[in-house]
Amino acid sequence: MATVGEKLAAAQESGDLTQIQQTLMEAKAAGADPAQIDQALAEVRRLSGTGASTKDSASTSDSKKEASSTGEAEQDQAAAEAAAEAAAAEARARAEALKKKGNERLKESTKSGAREALDFFTDGIEIRCSDPVLNGQLYSNRAHVRMLLRQFVEAVDDCRKAIESDPKKHQGLLAWRQSIDAPRPAQKWSGVL
Fold first, then answer.
1. Residue 98: enclosing H or E segment and its boundaries?
2. Cα dist. 171→91, 131, 132 in Å?
């Protein structure tokens, strides 16, 4: 099943304002930021009204028809871009909120808190927001929780994904090193890095 972001991208590519509007309504029903969705919907409605009036008045000549259709296409593209930006911002905000909830649960220093934090970080990763830094933080945080829960193989995988998401940050690299050292604390791993 396609995510709301994927549906919005497909609607944007098609340039169909009705499809964009329906996708935005689905995003709003799914819990997207209502203010951003309403703003994007207003833009789509404005463009729909402009496109309809342009079509009615474009019957005077062929050159005017071509100019109006070009203008409509540009307006459709602008509306689709605005909708995609709104959806990306909403996805980032949801992922950031889940990261904060996970961090709060982790501060409880309990096994059940760690499990809940793992769920929050996983949900944040599944959003697939377009911010590589945030994705790297989510993977790194989940790797940390997995080390606490002694899920070392999964922790190493998350560390690799954190490094892939945001290679400029060293947090994923440090967590990766710790996850390798954790199962065998007596053994030195100086040649790994």
1. helix 62-106
2. 23, 16, 14
User: What type of residue sits at position 141?
Assistant: N
Rg (C-alpha) for the chain, rounded Å, is 23
Per the structure block, which two tokens stand in for 108?
A: 């409880």
Interior/surface letters 80-93, b for 16+ CB within 10 angstroms, e for the rest: bebbbebbbbbbbe
Distance (Å, whole) CA 31 – CA 186? 49
Integer Cα distance of 19 and 17 in angstroms: 5
CB 48 within 8 A of CB 64: no
Query: Residue type for 5, please?
Result: G
**Beta-carbon count within 10 A of 39 CB:** 15
Q: What is the pLDDT of residue 55?
A: 38
* Both structure tokens of 5: 């972001």
Record the tokens describing residue 143, joined without a space: 């790797």
Quote the pLDDT of residue 192.
44
* DSSP H or E segment with residue 50: helix 34-57
Rounded Cα distance between 60 and 149, Å, is: 72
- CA dist 14 → 20, 60, 67 (Å): 9, 28, 20
Range of 25-34, 38-47, 80-89, 171-180 with top mean pLDDT: 80-89
pLDDT mean over 45-54: 56
